[in-house]
Amino acid sequence: MTSQMTEDFVKALPKTDLHVHLDGSLRLPTLIQLAKDRNVQLPSETEEGMRELVFKERYASLGDYLHGFKYTGSVLQDAEALEQVSYELAWDNIHEGVLYIEPRFAPQLHVNAKTDLPAVIVAVHRGLKRAKDEYNRSEAVQVHGRPPFEYGLIICAMRMFSEGFSHYYAQLINSHPYSPRKRVFAMASLELAQATVAIKREYGIPIVGFDLAGQENGFPAEDHVEAYQYAHKHFLKKTVHAGEAYGPESIFQAITDLHADRIGHGFNLLSPWLIQDDHVDKQRYITDLTEYIADRRITLEVCITSNLQTMPNLKAIHHHAFGDFLQRRLSVTFCTDNRLVSNTSVTRELMLAIDAFNMTPRDVKHCLIYGFKRSFFPGSYIEKRRYVRDIIDYYERVEREFGVDAEHANDDLSDPE
Ligand SMILES: [Zn+2]
Question: If you measure from the C-alpha of residue 19 to the centroid of ligand 1, how many angstroms do you get, rounded to a whole number?
Answer without folding.
Answer: 6
